[in-house]
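[scheduler] slot 2 assigned
[scheduler] job type: sequence-to-structure, two independent chains
[scheduler] chain ordering preserved from manifest
[runner] begin chain α
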Amino acid sequence: MTVFIILAIATLAGLFFRQSLLRFKASFALPEVEGEKPWFSLSAYFRWLWKRTKAIVSPSFFGKTWKVWNGWAEAHYPGWVKWVFLAFAAAFIYLSASGLFFAVFIRRGLFGYPLLAHVMSGGLFAVGLAAVLIARARAYRFDQRESVVFESFACPIFKNLSIEFVRKVLFWVIASLGFVQIMTALCSMLPIFTFNTQVGLLMIHRWSALGLTLAAVLFFDLTLLERPKPPGA
């Protein structure tokens, strides 16, 4: 359990730092010294992060965020399907927030009304995931173009992966881990498993939830958030 708490905090913080650092570097033309790669200033990064944080907490930010989110949902999930997707997204946000919060900060784990809401949101998540796969699975199928080498903004280590390819991989990771979440939750409700098996199912549920959250955050960053442009671009 302690290992999960440490890795959950470390991976979430690490992903946030990595993605924010990429945006920081893309937003500012950092100086170069004798042809070397741009250096990184920690103080400049924190000043930039503070300005971004103040912009996020402003009242206008939430209206702009909803406009972008709603516009993307309407473009990819037309008609009433948009509301199915929004309900799926809302259920996922609550499941991720409540599950990880109680797993990391509350030794007892989920209980009471938060647990009841978690179970109810799980049913909505399962239905929504099925609807999303039916509506959008074709758009994320792999084709021959994925074999072409692209320089990736998302994965600088793997230079042969394009952003579009990474986005497709993340979509299917989310779908796969979502299925694991649903199956472990359903199996844990059956009276046919022993206590040790139930504990094992709970740990699988928690680890897959962490992986699902990380994949969803990265997918959201690559899909919905606008790519920053350096000054003068």
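[runner] end chain α
[runner] begin chain β
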Amino acid sequence: MNQRTILDILSGQKSGVGYSMLRAALSLARVPYSATMRARRWAYGRGLLPSHQAPGAVPVISIGNITTGGSGKTPMVEWLCAKLVESGRNPAILIRGYKDAGRGSDEAMLLEKSLGQSVPVIVGADRVASARRCVEMNVDTLVLDDGFQHLRLRRDMDIVLIDATNPFGLGKCLPRGLLRENVGTLKHAHAIVVTRSDAIDRPSLDGLLEHLKTLSPSAILCTAVHRPTGVVAAGRGEPVDALVGKKVFAFCGLGNPHGFFHTLRRLGCNVVEAVALDDHAQYDSQLLERLCSYARQVNADAMVTTAKDAVKIEFSNRMPPMFVLEVKMDIVTGSDELLAAALSAGGD
């Protein structure tokens, strides 16, 4: 069962007695899951479960979310680390990593490509162990990717991302909805960044911001957009308007693929077909052959994918023209306050 089908079932788009019974069963399963997550956070908060400080009391800044699916964590990590470097800091990134067979973590490869060797990227499910690996490095800040629920490593600042297009994961915890934790946990956030804030209308955005203020009154509240910065074709960088007006076959394996498709349409692309693969999809030769065949069938001028997907694809001359859309996180409001808080994290 693919990601799109699961979302259609959870949202109620799939109707019928069988799907209704499945949703009822998932609602029952949600109760113990939600209770377990609340108990887990409570136990860590009271020291009943052990948490660990980073070696040398190096400040830890977590970037996470409260839902499954993509809210922009990787571009947010890139934005923060670039700003820290500009400010004279030496950050390292601790990332769990989802490995593509034989190639490593797609997020790690993308971050290493965008930030260069000046920012170490430490991959490992045990982020406490990853933090200890940084002892011998000239590191003064640890950026914890996808860390809001990773409570074993103490953090000095929690930045939580909220996707404006689906802010609260259908309003229900897993497995009935997409919430990893109850929305009440946002009270622990030091900063909340509403991503894809340009994908909803202004009244809806204002209503969301007001609701977030009630959930986390003391948090810094920011808005952000995924800003296209250029495209890469045949290894050459081109301006972003190189895609405008083209008939494109778009594909990606992201937590929120429709955000990518929305960005392409806003650019002025004619998206003749959009294929959403599972998150962290592995691009073997069979899958690539099928995608290229689909693109030819719809007479697309070009295929377009994301930079995160592109690091896992072996391009060849046998493919139709392939474009990689490069996107950066742009903090539209609250960026100065957010950066100031990050720079002071861990201070006395």
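[runner] end chain β
[qc] chain β: The radius of gyration is 21 Å.
[scheduler] slot 2 released
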